[in-house]
Amino acid sequence: METPLLVISGEIDHGNAPVLSAAVEEALEMQAPLLVFDVTDVVYIDSGGVSVLLSTVRRLRERGWSLDGSFRMFANQADALAAIEEFARG
Amino acid sequence: MTVQEHAHCRRYSVDADACNLVEIRRFVEGVAMEVRLDEERTFDLKVAVSEACANAVEHSGSSHCPVQIAAWFYPDRVQLDISDGGDFRLPCMAPDRRRENRGLGFPLMVALMDEVRVAKQQDGGTRVTLLLYLDSRGAA
Description:
The structure holds two protein chains of two kinds. By secondary structure, chain A is α/β, with parallel strands linked by helices. In chain A, 51% of the residues lie in helices and 26% in strands. In chain A, α1 (17-29) packs parallel to α2 (47-62). Chain A is built from four helices and three strands. In chain B, α1 packs antiparallel against α2. Chain B is built from three helices and five strands; from the N terminus they run βααββαββ. Chain B has helices at residues 21-34, 39-60, 105-112, and strands at residues 8-15, 66-73, 77-84, 115-120, 126-133. The relative contact order of chain B is 0.21. The interface between A and B is medium-sized, with 13 and 20 residues.
């Protein structure tokens, strides 16, 4: 199964949070049991961006997924990719 | 004895649109540079002002109302006034309870700044004042 990898970079604020929200929405539609965020190149995130992430966590909970297993966020690209590979291997 | 304070001011005005927050942060970077804030306090000021402006955008209700920012430079502090044409609302007063993750901005401002004031303006609208003292924590 394909695992969605969301690579976020730059400044996330109320102005572009809807773009992030749409990307998360698309990833959730894949129905994959794992969402991986690569935030290596995020230099700024405001409460609008944090809101999107919090509501993502809430949505995953509503699906009955454990947060430890289904929501992974990395500030290092190699670690993000390793998490996906690890999941693919089972 | 009267201590005379010499302040000068830089002003910035943009349409109340969240897409302008990025430009507002560039303005704040200029302000921070002028008072030689270190990297950490510059970031604090950027977050606080940006959150205040995001609130202003939200309760302005119209992108035609401007959000006005005034940066006042004093010998010992920098003061940012953020004015808008809307009514200030605390998160618990928000009419739309579905927006459950909103209202993170104000606590951030309070945590990051030395002083935060909210005032109703005579002509309607709200003014949020953020104060940062230029002490050993930040001034280079």
